[in-house]
Give the backbone structure.
Amino acid sequence: MTLNKQQLDQMFEAARPLKEWLGANCHPHCTALVESDRIILVEGIAGGPFPEDEEDSACPECGGKLSNESVEAGMNGRAYRQATCFECGRVVRNFGEGWEVRS
Ligand SMILES: [Zn+2]
């Protein structure tokens, strides 16, 4: 499935109130999954990349360790991984061809 720009904009707009509710009522490790017939609130206990994949998870700016990785829907419908560098704090993205600093 791919989404066009309008559908992607609509999805973000529809999700914004839930994002704000999560921010006001839950801690940052909670995730809401909305399906066609239910909603599930889940809590991440612990996580991160497997150690054997860590060379794939170095900050392109400073080589620091990346954390808080998530999968996002790109503006063009392509999914990408997003993470934050523990060392320099930069937000980086990976479209499948390595990490780059978010512009
Ligand atoms: Zn860094």
